[in-house]
Amino acid sequence: MRAVLVANIKGGCGKTTIATHLAAAYARSGHPTVLADVDRQRSSLGWLERRPASAAPLAGIDWSREFDEPPRGTRRLVIDAPAALKAKQIEELVRMADIVVLPVLPGAFDEQATQRFLKKLEELKPIARNKKAVAVVGNRMKARTKASERLDAFLGGLGHAVVARLRDSQIYADTAAAGLSLFDLTGKRAAEHRGDWDALLTYIDENV
Length: 208
Ligand SMILES: Nc1ncnc2c1ncn2[C@@H]1O[C@H](COP(=O)(O)OP(=O)(O)O)[C@@H](O)[C@H]1O
Ligand SMILES: [Mg+2]
Fold this sequence. Notes:
Blueprint: E1 2-6, H1 15-28, E2 33-37, H2 43-50, E3 59-62, E4 76-80, H3 87-96, E5 99-104, H4 108-122, H5 125-128, E6 133-141, H6 146-157, E7 162-167, H7 170-177, H8 188-194, H9 198-206
Parallel strand pairs: 1-4, 1-5, 2-3, 2-4, 5-6, 6-7
């Protein structure tokens, strides 16, 4: 089983969007996939409840109280973390994960929070010893803006490259409301935005 943890202490940076998309992408590829929702707000589990029966099947587990064993036969586990996490919980989730995906929005406040979170992550042994990778994803990016250049410079300064960039698009709110993801849609617009995910999916495959 491969486990991907999606986390950042910043709220609204795209954790649930990325967790639901990764889970849907794996389900679509035919891997038995489980989405573990650590957030008491149950955004991922709510999305799963809205998910139409026609979409690639996905199971959900509630990890808001404790981190249970995923069901037998699970091949891909995607963990959607809340913004508020205790140091102990971060440590435990990182221990269970093979890789950490860290979404970050461009902007000074988000950068500060991300810097703090990255520092905490880097104090953990598997990350400090490069046993587990951290994939930074720039979310809600607008091409060639000052903000996106700033984000590159900022992350570069912290020793991290941006692995993938997801554009800002209404398509994310629309798919979320329908229990879907870009990986469940046909059509040109979805296909075009789906391309934004290639680099992240490849990076995860190569680093777990
Ligand atoms: N790339 C994007 N473009 C447009 N809206 C986005 C994008 N990513 C996330 N959103 C929207 O931003 C809001 C917060 O995203 P969410 O994934 O719930 O963040 P988190 O789980 O980190 O709190 C949601 O309304 C979501 O639809
Ligand atoms: Mg969330």
